[in-house]
Amino acid sequence: MDDSIKFTGLPNPCGVGEYGVKENAKKLLRFLYFHQQLMLIGCGQLPARADWELKQGIGRHAYEDGMAASALRIRITELRTPAHSLGKLSDPLMELFFDELIHVRSDLEFSVLIYGFVKPELLRIYRDYIRKTQQIVDHPTVRMLRPIIWDLEEQTAWGERMIAHLKAKESLDPDQEQYIDYLKDIVQTAGGFDANGDKSFVFPDRRRSHTPYVLPAKSIRDSSMGPSVSYRTGMGIPFDNPDQEALADMMRIRQEEMGAAETIAGVIYSQKGMDWEFYTDLARHLWDEIRHTMLGQAALEAEGYNWRSRPQFVSDYNFVFPKVPAVRYAWLSLGVEEKAMKRPGKVGEYEFCRDVVKHPLMTLFQDYDWADEVVHAQLGRKWTPAMFDENLETIRGIALPLAAEKLDYQQQLKNSRDTNPK
Ligand SMILES: [Fe+2]
Ligand SMILES: [Fe+2]
Q1: What fold characterizes domain 15-189?
Q2: From the CA of 340, how far away is ligand 1's center (Å)?
Q3: For 158-199, how does the pLDDT look when each residue is reduced to its tens digit (9 = 90+)?
Q4: How many Cα atoms occupy the beta-carbon half-sphere of 409 within 13 Å?
Q5: Which of 15, 28, 105, 310 has CA 20 to 30 A from 360's CA?
Q6: How far apart are the CA of 373 and the centre of ligand 1, in A?
Q7: Which is more confidently placed, 211 or 418?
Q8: Domain 228-419 architecture
Q9: pLDDT for 255-287, tens place per residue?
Q10: Is the peptide bond before 227 cis (omega within 30 degrees of 0)?
Q11: From the CA of 337, how far away is ligand 2's center (Å)?
Q12: How far is CA 292 from the centre of its chain?
Protein backbone atom coordinates (compact mmCIF):
# COMPACT_ATOMS: atom_id res chain seq x y z
CA MET A 1 0.00 0.00 0.00
CA ASP A 2 1.08 3.53 -0.69
CA ASP A 3 1.65 4.74 2.89
CA SER A 4 0.83 8.30 1.93
CA ILE A 5 -2.86 7.42 1.60
CA LYS A 6 -3.00 6.23 5.20
CA PHE A 7 -4.20 8.58 7.93
CA THR A 8 -5.88 10.75 5.27
CA GLY A 9 -2.39 11.90 4.30
CA LEU A 10 -1.52 13.42 7.69
CA PRO A 11 2.27 13.49 8.01
CA ASN A 12 4.23 11.67 10.71
CA PRO A 13 1.21 9.96 12.30
CA CYS A 14 3.22 7.90 14.82
CA GLY A 15 5.44 10.76 16.00
CA VAL A 16 5.05 11.88 19.57
CA GLY A 17 4.23 15.56 19.36
CA GLU A 18 5.65 18.12 21.73
CA TYR A 19 2.47 19.54 23.17
CA GLY A 20 -0.02 17.96 25.53
CA VAL A 21 -3.41 19.62 25.97
CA LYS A 22 -2.27 21.88 28.80
CA GLU A 23 0.87 23.04 26.97
CA ASN A 24 -1.11 23.53 23.76
CA ALA A 25 -3.72 25.71 25.48
CA LYS A 26 -0.97 27.73 27.15
CA LYS A 27 0.68 28.44 23.80
CA LEU A 28 -2.57 29.30 22.08
CA LEU A 29 -3.49 31.70 24.90
CA ARG A 30 -0.25 33.55 24.12
CA PHE A 31 -1.06 33.65 20.40
CA LEU A 32 -4.57 34.90 21.17
CA TYR A 33 -3.20 37.68 23.34
CA PHE A 34 -0.86 38.77 20.51
CA HIS A 35 -3.63 39.03 17.90
CA GLN A 36 -6.01 40.84 20.25
CA GLN A 37 -3.27 43.31 21.07
CA LEU A 38 -2.29 43.74 17.42
CA MET A 39 -5.91 44.44 16.49
CA LEU A 40 -6.19 47.10 19.19
CA ILE A 41 -2.84 48.66 18.28
CA GLY A 42 -3.82 48.84 14.61
CA CYS A 43 -7.11 50.51 15.57
CA GLY A 44 -5.42 52.95 17.94
CA GLN A 45 -2.78 53.87 15.39
CA LEU A 46 -4.94 54.08 12.25
CA PRO A 47 -6.08 57.72 12.67
CA ALA A 48 -2.52 58.76 13.61
CA ARG A 49 -0.74 57.24 10.63
CA ALA A 50 -0.30 59.29 7.47
CA ASP A 51 0.56 57.11 4.49
CA TRP A 52 -2.66 56.28 2.57
CA GLU A 53 -1.66 52.74 1.58
CA LEU A 54 -0.38 52.03 5.10
CA LYS A 55 -3.72 53.16 6.56
CA GLN A 56 -5.58 50.79 4.25
CA GLY A 57 -3.23 47.95 5.21
CA ILE A 58 -3.65 48.66 8.93
CA GLY A 59 -7.44 48.49 8.53
CA ARG A 60 -7.34 45.18 6.69
CA HIS A 61 -4.85 43.65 9.11
CA ALA A 62 -6.81 44.77 12.19
CA TYR A 63 -9.72 42.78 10.76
CA GLU A 64 -7.47 39.78 10.02
CA ASP A 65 -6.01 39.90 13.54
CA GLY A 66 -9.57 39.93 14.86
CA MET A 67 -10.41 36.86 12.77
CA ALA A 68 -7.24 35.10 13.99
CA ALA A 69 -8.19 35.85 17.59
CA SER A 70 -11.73 34.52 17.07
CA ALA A 71 -10.41 31.22 15.66
CA LEU A 72 -7.95 30.88 18.53
CA ARG A 73 -10.67 31.53 21.10
CA ILE A 74 -12.77 28.68 19.72
CA ARG A 75 -9.87 26.22 19.69
CA ILE A 76 -8.67 27.16 23.19
CA THR A 77 -12.06 26.40 24.74
CA GLU A 78 -11.86 22.91 23.18
CA LEU A 79 -8.69 22.33 25.21
CA ARG A 80 -10.22 22.04 28.68
CA THR A 81 -9.72 25.77 29.17
CA PRO A 82 -12.56 27.90 30.55
CA ALA A 83 -13.79 30.87 28.56
CA HIS A 84 -12.90 33.27 31.38
CA SER A 85 -9.18 32.63 30.65
CA LEU A 86 -9.49 33.99 27.11
CA GLY A 87 -7.61 37.19 26.37
CA LYS A 88 -5.55 37.06 29.56
CA LEU A 89 -1.83 36.44 29.72
CA SER A 90 0.33 36.27 32.83
CA ASP A 91 3.54 37.49 31.27
CA PRO A 92 4.57 40.96 32.47
CA LEU A 93 7.23 41.23 29.75
CA MET A 94 4.74 40.64 26.94
CA GLU A 95 2.36 43.06 28.61
CA LEU A 96 5.13 45.66 28.69
CA PHE A 97 5.96 44.96 25.04
CA PHE A 98 2.42 45.64 23.82
CA ASP A 99 1.93 48.56 26.23
CA GLU A 100 4.96 50.15 24.58
CA LEU A 101 4.19 49.11 21.00
CA ILE A 102 1.04 51.26 20.81
CA HIS A 103 3.26 54.31 21.39
CA VAL A 104 5.06 54.19 18.01
CA ARG A 105 5.37 57.67 16.56
CA SER A 106 5.81 57.38 12.82
CA ASP A 107 4.68 55.31 9.85
CA LEU A 108 8.15 53.83 9.49
CA GLU A 109 8.56 53.03 13.20
CA PHE A 110 5.13 51.34 13.13
CA SER A 111 5.92 49.34 10.00
CA VAL A 112 9.43 48.27 11.02
CA LEU A 113 8.07 46.93 14.31
CA ILE A 114 4.79 45.39 13.13
CA TYR A 115 5.70 44.17 9.64
CA GLY A 116 9.45 43.84 10.04
CA PHE A 117 9.47 42.20 13.46
CA VAL A 118 6.23 41.05 15.14
CA LYS A 119 4.44 39.53 12.13
CA PRO A 120 7.49 37.66 10.73
CA GLU A 121 8.17 36.28 14.22
CA LEU A 122 4.57 35.07 14.58
CA LEU A 123 4.77 33.46 11.14
CA ARG A 124 7.95 31.67 12.15
CA ILE A 125 6.59 30.35 15.45
CA TYR A 126 3.26 29.19 13.95
CA ARG A 127 5.08 27.22 11.26
CA ASP A 128 7.29 25.82 14.00
CA TYR A 129 4.23 24.91 16.07
CA ILE A 130 2.65 23.01 13.15
CA ARG A 131 5.87 21.04 12.65
CA LYS A 132 6.18 20.07 16.29
CA THR A 133 2.65 19.18 17.32
CA GLN A 134 1.19 15.66 17.01
CA GLN A 135 -0.58 15.66 13.67
CA ILE A 136 -3.58 13.45 14.52
CA VAL A 137 -4.48 14.63 18.01
CA ASP A 138 -3.89 18.29 17.26
CA HIS A 139 -5.16 18.53 13.68
CA PRO A 140 -7.88 21.03 14.74
CA THR A 141 -5.13 23.45 15.81
CA VAL A 142 -3.10 22.83 12.65
CA ARG A 143 -6.13 23.56 10.49
CA MET A 144 -7.07 26.61 12.55
CA LEU A 145 -3.56 28.04 12.16
CA ARG A 146 -3.44 27.61 8.37
CA PRO A 147 -5.52 30.65 7.37
CA ILE A 148 -3.72 32.69 10.03
CA ILE A 149 -0.43 31.69 8.39
CA TRP A 150 -1.76 32.63 4.94
CA ASP A 151 -2.73 36.05 6.25
CA LEU A 152 0.66 36.49 7.93
CA GLU A 153 2.46 35.51 4.73
CA GLU A 154 0.58 38.17 2.77
CA GLN A 155 0.93 40.74 5.53
CA THR A 156 4.69 40.30 5.88
CA ALA A 157 5.35 40.26 2.12
CA TRP A 158 3.27 43.42 1.67
CA GLY A 159 4.81 44.90 4.83
CA GLU A 160 8.31 44.43 3.46
CA ARG A 161 7.37 46.44 0.36
CA MET A 162 5.66 49.04 2.57
CA ILE A 163 8.84 49.45 4.66
CA ALA A 164 10.87 50.00 1.46
CA HIS A 165 8.28 52.55 0.25
CA LEU A 166 8.42 54.43 3.57
CA LYS A 167 12.22 54.36 3.75
CA ALA A 168 12.30 56.21 0.44
CA LYS A 169 10.50 59.16 2.06
CA GLU A 170 11.38 59.14 5.77
CA SER A 171 13.99 57.77 8.14
CA LEU A 172 14.21 56.75 11.77
CA ASP A 173 15.89 59.12 14.21
CA PRO A 174 18.38 57.71 16.77
CA ASP A 175 15.70 57.66 19.48
CA GLN A 176 13.45 55.55 17.27
CA GLU A 177 16.31 53.18 16.35
CA GLN A 178 16.99 52.73 20.06
CA TYR A 179 13.29 52.23 20.80
CA ILE A 180 13.04 49.46 18.22
CA ASP A 181 16.05 47.70 19.77
CA TYR A 182 14.52 48.15 23.22
CA LEU A 183 11.27 46.48 22.12
CA LYS A 184 13.10 43.60 20.45
CA ASP A 185 15.14 43.12 23.64
CA ILE A 186 11.94 42.82 25.69
CA VAL A 187 10.79 39.92 23.51
CA GLN A 188 14.16 38.25 23.77
CA THR A 189 14.09 38.65 27.56
CA ALA A 190 10.69 36.93 27.55
CA GLY A 191 12.19 33.93 25.71
CA GLY A 192 10.63 34.97 22.39
CA PHE A 193 6.97 35.29 21.44
CA ASP A 194 6.55 31.54 21.91
CA ALA A 195 8.50 31.56 25.21
CA ASN A 196 10.56 28.66 23.84
CA GLY A 197 13.86 30.47 24.38
CA ASP A 198 15.68 31.20 27.61
CA LYS A 199 13.76 33.58 29.78
CA SER A 200 15.65 36.08 31.83
CA PHE A 201 14.08 37.67 34.85
CA VAL A 202 15.35 41.12 34.07
CA PHE A 203 12.52 43.59 33.73
CA PRO A 204 13.32 46.60 31.54
CA ASP A 205 11.89 49.98 32.55
CA ARG A 206 8.91 51.44 30.82
CA ARG A 207 9.82 54.14 28.34
CA ARG A 208 6.83 55.66 26.57
CA SER A 209 3.99 53.82 28.32
CA HIS A 210 4.01 55.69 31.64
CA THR A 211 0.97 57.53 30.32
CA PRO A 212 -1.76 55.82 28.30
CA TYR A 213 -1.81 56.19 24.52
CA VAL A 214 -4.20 58.92 23.40
CA LEU A 215 -6.01 58.85 20.03
CA PRO A 216 -5.35 61.93 17.87
CA ALA A 217 -8.19 64.46 17.93
CA LYS A 218 -7.68 65.05 14.21
CA SER A 219 -7.02 62.30 11.70
CA ILE A 220 -3.79 62.51 9.75
CA ARG A 221 -3.32 62.42 5.98
CA ASP A 222 -0.14 62.09 3.97
CA SER A 223 1.47 65.51 3.38
CA SER A 224 1.90 64.60 -0.29
CA MET A 225 -1.92 64.57 -0.64
CA GLY A 226 -4.19 67.58 -0.87
CA PRO A 227 -4.94 69.48 2.38
CA SER A 228 -7.32 68.04 4.98
CA VAL A 229 -10.73 69.74 4.83
CA SER A 230 -14.11 69.39 6.55
CA TYR A 231 -16.31 69.75 3.47
CA ARG A 232 -16.62 67.80 0.22
CA THR A 233 -14.68 69.17 -2.74
CA GLY A 234 -15.33 66.59 -5.49
CA MET A 235 -12.88 66.67 -8.39
CA GLY A 236 -12.91 70.47 -8.77
CA ILE A 237 -12.95 70.38 -12.57
CA PRO A 238 -15.61 71.40 -15.13
CA PHE A 239 -17.92 68.62 -16.34
CA ASP A 240 -19.96 68.32 -19.55
CA ASN A 241 -23.14 67.57 -17.61
CA PRO A 242 -24.30 67.45 -13.98
CA ASP A 243 -24.73 63.65 -14.01
CA GLN A 244 -21.05 63.14 -14.79
CA GLU A 245 -20.16 65.52 -11.99
CA ALA A 246 -22.49 63.65 -9.60
CA LEU A 247 -20.79 60.39 -10.60
CA ALA A 248 -17.31 61.79 -9.92
CA ASP A 249 -18.58 63.19 -6.59
CA MET A 250 -19.87 59.71 -5.69
CA MET A 251 -16.48 58.17 -6.47
CA ARG A 252 -14.80 60.75 -4.24
CA ILE A 253 -17.27 60.23 -1.40
CA ARG A 254 -16.45 56.50 -1.50
CA GLN A 255 -12.70 57.29 -1.57
CA GLU A 256 -13.12 59.60 1.43
CA GLU A 257 -14.69 56.92 3.64
CA MET A 258 -11.37 56.66 5.44
CA GLY A 259 -12.91 58.96 8.04
CA ALA A 260 -15.65 56.39 8.73
CA ALA A 261 -12.99 53.66 9.04
CA GLU A 262 -10.99 55.84 11.45
CA THR A 263 -14.08 56.54 13.53
CA ILE A 264 -14.78 52.80 13.92
CA ALA A 265 -11.10 52.15 14.72
CA GLY A 266 -11.32 54.78 17.45
CA VAL A 267 -14.48 53.15 18.84
CA ILE A 268 -12.85 49.69 18.89
CA TYR A 269 -9.84 51.13 20.68
CA SER A 270 -11.80 53.19 23.22
CA GLN A 271 -14.90 51.14 24.02
CA LYS A 272 -13.97 48.82 26.88
CA GLY A 273 -15.71 45.81 28.36
CA MET A 274 -17.86 44.61 25.44
CA ASP A 275 -18.27 40.96 24.39
CA TRP A 276 -15.51 39.78 22.05
CA GLU A 277 -18.02 39.55 19.19
CA PHE A 278 -18.49 43.34 19.37
CA TYR A 279 -14.82 43.88 18.52
CA THR A 280 -14.80 41.42 15.61
CA ASP A 281 -18.07 42.80 14.23
CA LEU A 282 -16.64 46.31 14.33
CA ALA A 283 -13.30 45.16 12.89
CA ARG A 284 -15.27 43.82 9.90
CA HIS A 285 -17.18 47.10 9.72
CA LEU A 286 -13.82 48.91 9.77
CA TRP A 287 -12.39 46.78 6.96
CA ASP A 288 -15.56 47.27 4.90
CA GLU A 289 -15.11 51.06 5.10
CA ILE A 290 -11.45 50.70 4.09
CA ARG A 291 -12.66 48.62 1.10
CA HIS A 292 -15.13 51.41 0.31
CA THR A 293 -12.22 53.86 0.10
CA MET A 294 -10.71 51.43 -2.41
CA LEU A 295 -13.93 51.33 -4.46
CA GLY A 296 -13.78 55.09 -4.85
CA GLN A 297 -10.03 55.06 -5.44
CA ALA A 298 -10.25 52.31 -8.09
CA ALA A 299 -13.12 54.06 -9.91
CA LEU A 300 -11.30 57.42 -9.85
CA GLU A 301 -8.06 55.87 -11.06
CA ALA A 302 -9.88 53.95 -13.82
CA GLU A 303 -11.13 57.34 -15.07
CA GLY A 304 -7.66 58.88 -14.81
CA TYR A 305 -8.66 61.38 -12.08
CA ASN A 306 -5.85 62.64 -9.86
CA TRP A 307 -7.69 62.27 -6.56
CA ARG A 308 -4.55 62.30 -4.37
CA SER A 309 -3.77 65.94 -5.03
CA ARG A 310 -7.36 66.99 -4.19
CA PRO A 311 -8.28 68.21 -0.69
CA GLN A 312 -9.06 65.26 1.58
CA PHE A 313 -12.30 65.21 3.59
CA VAL A 314 -11.63 64.31 7.23
CA SER A 315 -14.77 65.52 9.00
CA ASP A 316 -16.19 62.01 9.51
CA TYR A 317 -13.50 61.44 12.13
CA ASN A 318 -12.78 64.95 13.37
CA PHE A 319 -16.37 66.15 13.87
CA VAL A 320 -17.50 63.23 16.04
CA PHE A 321 -14.20 62.58 17.83
CA PRO A 322 -15.07 64.74 20.89
CA LYS A 323 -18.11 62.52 21.54
CA VAL A 324 -17.97 59.34 23.66
CA PRO A 325 -17.45 56.12 21.61
CA ALA A 326 -21.12 55.05 21.92
CA VAL A 327 -22.29 58.32 20.35
CA ARG A 328 -19.64 58.09 17.60
CA TYR A 329 -20.81 54.61 16.66
CA ALA A 330 -24.50 55.52 16.86
CA TRP A 331 -23.89 58.54 14.62
CA LEU A 332 -22.28 56.36 11.93
CA SER A 333 -24.36 53.18 12.10
CA LEU A 334 -27.81 54.68 12.78
CA GLY A 335 -27.50 58.39 11.93
CA VAL A 336 -25.81 57.74 8.57
CA GLU A 337 -25.94 54.06 7.55
CA GLU A 338 -29.41 53.09 8.73
CA LYS A 339 -30.75 56.38 7.35
CA ALA A 340 -29.24 55.45 3.96
CA MET A 341 -31.56 52.42 3.83
CA LYS A 342 -34.42 54.80 2.95
CA ARG A 343 -34.82 56.08 -0.62
CA PRO A 344 -33.01 57.65 -2.34
CA GLY A 345 -30.14 56.46 -0.08
CA LYS A 346 -28.03 53.49 -1.13
CA VAL A 347 -30.52 52.06 -3.62
CA GLY A 348 -30.68 55.48 -5.29
CA GLU A 349 -26.89 55.59 -5.71
CA TYR A 350 -26.94 52.11 -7.27
CA GLU A 351 -29.80 52.92 -9.66
CA PHE A 352 -28.14 56.18 -10.67
CA CYS A 353 -24.97 54.31 -11.70
CA ARG A 354 -26.93 51.55 -13.44
CA ASP A 355 -29.69 53.52 -15.17
CA VAL A 356 -28.59 57.14 -15.51
CA VAL A 357 -24.84 57.20 -16.12
CA LYS A 358 -24.66 53.48 -17.06
CA HIS A 359 -21.20 53.06 -15.53
CA PRO A 360 -20.46 49.29 -15.18
CA LEU A 361 -17.68 49.54 -12.59
CA MET A 362 -19.51 51.97 -10.29
CA THR A 363 -22.77 50.01 -10.73
CA LEU A 364 -21.04 46.90 -9.41
CA PHE A 365 -19.28 48.87 -6.66
CA GLN A 366 -22.50 50.52 -5.49
CA ASP A 367 -24.32 47.18 -5.61
CA TYR A 368 -21.88 45.74 -3.06
CA ASP A 369 -21.53 48.98 -1.15
CA TRP A 370 -25.31 48.90 -0.61
CA ALA A 371 -25.10 45.25 0.58
CA ASP A 372 -22.33 46.19 3.02
CA GLU A 373 -24.32 49.13 4.34
CA VAL A 374 -27.31 46.89 5.07
CA VAL A 375 -24.97 44.89 7.33
CA HIS A 376 -23.61 48.06 8.95
CA ALA A 377 -27.09 49.30 9.81
CA GLN A 378 -27.77 45.88 11.38
CA LEU A 379 -24.57 46.18 13.40
CA GLY A 380 -25.74 49.54 14.70
CA ARG A 381 -29.05 48.02 15.82
CA LYS A 382 -27.21 45.02 17.31
CA TRP A 383 -24.65 46.87 19.41
CA THR A 384 -25.73 50.40 20.25
CA PRO A 385 -28.45 49.31 22.74
CA ALA A 386 -25.77 47.55 24.83
CA MET A 387 -23.41 50.53 24.49
CA PHE A 388 -26.06 52.95 25.83
CA ASP A 389 -28.27 50.57 27.85
CA GLU A 390 -31.13 52.34 26.06
CA ASN A 391 -33.66 51.35 23.42
CA LEU A 392 -33.14 52.03 19.73
CA GLU A 393 -35.70 54.84 19.53
CA THR A 394 -33.82 56.77 22.22
CA ILE A 395 -30.49 56.16 20.49
CA ARG A 396 -31.86 57.25 17.09
CA GLY A 397 -32.96 60.41 18.89
CA ILE A 398 -29.29 61.06 19.65
CA ALA A 399 -27.78 59.88 16.32
CA LEU A 400 -30.08 61.51 13.77
CA PRO A 401 -29.87 65.11 15.09
CA LEU A 402 -26.08 64.75 15.32
CA ALA A 403 -25.95 63.57 11.69
CA ALA A 404 -28.09 66.55 10.64
CA GLU A 405 -25.91 68.93 12.65
CA LYS A 406 -22.80 67.57 10.94
CA LEU A 407 -24.29 68.00 7.45
CA ASP A 408 -25.28 71.60 8.32
CA TYR A 409 -21.75 72.29 9.52
CA GLN A 410 -20.27 70.90 6.29
CA GLN A 411 -22.73 72.90 4.19
CA GLN A 412 -21.89 76.13 6.03
CA LEU A 413 -18.18 75.54 5.46
CA LYS A 414 -18.79 74.82 1.77
CA ASN A 415 -20.96 77.95 1.40
CA SER A 416 -18.34 80.15 3.00
CA ARG A 417 -15.67 78.59 0.74
CA ASP A 418 -17.83 79.17 -2.36
CA THR A 419 -18.43 82.82 -1.50
CA ASN A 420 -14.87 83.35 -0.28
CA PRO A 421 -12.67 80.92 -2.27
CA LYS A 422 -9.43 81.95 -0.52
FE1 LIG B 1 -19.15 52.75 3.55
FE1 LIG C 1 -20.80 51.59 6.14
Answers
A1: Ferritin (1.20.1260)
A2: 10
A3: 999 999 999 999 999 999 999 999 999 999 999 999 999 999
A4: 13
A5: 310
A6: 6
A7: 211
A8: Up-down Bundle (1.20)
A9: 999 999 999 999 999 999 999 999 999 999 999
A10: no
A11: 6
A12: 13
Closest ligand to residue 334's CA: 2
Distance 223 CA to ligand 2 centre (A): 26
Beta-bridge partners for 313: 229
Asked if 68 and 151 touch (Cβ cutoff 8 Å), the reply is yes
Q: Which ligand is the nearest neighbour of the Cα of 284? A: 2
- Write the secondary structure of the chain as one string of H (helix), E (strand) and C (coil): CCHHHHHHHCCCCCCCCCCCHHHHHHHHHHHHHHHHHHHHHHHHHHHHCCCHHHHHHHHHHHHHHHHHHHHHHHHHHCCCCCHHHCCCCCCHHHHHHHHHHCCCCCHHHHHHHHHHHHHHHHHHHHHHHHHHCCCCCCHHHHHHHHHHHHHHHHHHHHHHHHHHHHHCCCCCCHHHHHHHHHHHHHHHHCCCCCCCCCCCCCCCCCCCCCCCCCCCCCCCCCCCCCCEECCCCCCCCCCCCHHHHHHHHHHHHHHCCHHHHHHHHHHHHHCCCCCHHHHHHHHHHHHHHHHHHHHHHHHHHHCCCCCCCCCEECHHHHCCCCCCHHHHHHHHHHHHHHHHHCCCHHHHHHHHHHHHCCCHHHHHHHHHHHHHHHHHHHHHHHHHHHHHCCCHHHHHHHHHHHHHHHHHHHHHHHHHHHHCCC
- Spatial separation of the C-alpha atoms in residues 422 and 34, rounded to whole Å: 49
Which ligand has the nearest atom to the CA of 282?
2
225-253 pLDDT, tens digit per residue, is: 999 999 999 999 999 999 999 999 999 99
Enumerate the CATH 1.20.1260.10 domain ranges in the chain, comma separated. Answer: 15-189
Closest C-alpha among 282, 358, 342 to residue 66: 282
- Measure the CA–CA gap between 256 and 295, rounded to whole angstroms: 10
Tell me, in angstroms, the distance from the centre of ligand 2 to residue 255's CA.
13
Q: Which amino acid is at 111?
A: S
Q: How far is the CA of 383 from the centre of ligand 1 (A)?
A: 18
- Ligand index nearest the alpha carbon of residue 380: 2
Shortest-distance ligand to the CA of residue 378: 2
